[in-house]
Amino acid sequence: MNALLKKIKLYFPLIKSLQTSLLLLTGVAGYLSAHNGVNWAHFGQMLPSLFLAISGSTILNMWWDQDIDAKMKRTHQRPTSAGKVTRREAFYLGMAVSILGVSWAVLLNGLYGLVVFAGLFFDVVVYSIWLKRRTCWSIVWGGISGAMPILAGRVLAVGQIDAIGALLAAAVLFWIPTHTLTFSLKFAEDYQNAGVPTFPSTYGEAFTRFAIALSSVVAALTMGLAAVWIGVTAGTLRLILVLSAGLFFLAATTVFRPSERVNFSLFKYASMYMTFAMLLIIP
Amino acid sequence: MKLSSANRTLLFGAGLLAAYQIVIGIDRMEAEPIAAYTIAFGALLVSALLLIILGFDALEAPAVGIISTIIPLALSLGLIWQYAAAWRGAYLLFAVGAFLAVTLSRAAPFANSIRVALIALAHGISGMVIFLLPLLSAAQAKTHPMFALAGAGGALIGIGGLLLSFLKAGKPITSKETALKIFPAIFFFATLCFVIGFKYR
Fold it and tell me: What is the ipTM of this complex?
């Protein structure tokens, strides 16, 4: 029992619990945004299947990126890069968890399973293995994979890929650069040392800040449009508007008065924004 | 100065109360006061979130003087619109003019005495409106007596706004440490008073 607990404690950091929780929340929000009652049998299976698929892809990312993680100050303490979990162990664990999650998702609903698989495929194969070390535009594919949980949740609830699902996915897709690009600004040196191309190293800081501001504006507009279409109350819409205004304000400040402090606050605020936006589209 | 857990909790509470007010507390009003209150409580909410993220460092931002002016101006505009209809046009002009003047004085190389005077004028008038209008409305039985609490909230937010604005203008009313120590509590109780007061309007 003790050995098992030790293993779980060792493996837990492999799944990036905060990121996984936020993605899982987007899946829940996508499901509940349908406002057509909760099928508890579906919902109860969506949570673990999505959790396993997201966790599996995160573990596989750590397996693949072990060498670059070891070169970066921010990530060198991760279990794989610190040598606490071997690459082989991470690979087998990631594959097992991924297969379990995707299989469960496919058995639950074919289309839902396909979207969950697409998220995993785009994240591990397209983003991490194929593009991350080649081009800074890899984040677009990382964004697409990050948008899959909310689409998956919506698909499971409505049985098809509808316009609202696509809008919600687009909102997450456009929000992700706000998150990842502020990160790449903060840890630009780290990424450079690891040889990972980023927007700051390819196009410079000013362009990166502009891209962050633009993606924030588009993400907030898309989320607002999705919220209107979902039919949230006027009060909820007001709150989304206010939170979006905060995002615009910080994004504009990063362009016109750039500083480490503004960059950090935008990074944190963007996470809060997405969490609140997800909670607000749930009835 | 580090933000304590208690202060963080107070700010989070203030943020939640402001969010509640935006979603539920200002429903069933005319469009204009809804817009004014949304701006006021929205500025309160975003300020609370930024304070939670950055701690008191957030107060170093140049925009603080402007944001701390938006809150009382927008709140007082909403109150005038609802409870002193005859003054709507004139007060709208004052609110927009005061906001523009304070913003301009912070963006352009104005003398500090002018900045301070503009802040004092904007906060002084809007603060009096927020403090007195709910009290008078409640005293004259135009509203529920509990609406007077919104006036108490006005007094608190007025004190908070003045503390911050004068601190930013380089003419602190009290020491920076004291101002920062009491600010989250002022923020929370002011928002609480507003929410309760508006519930009984």
Answer: 0.87
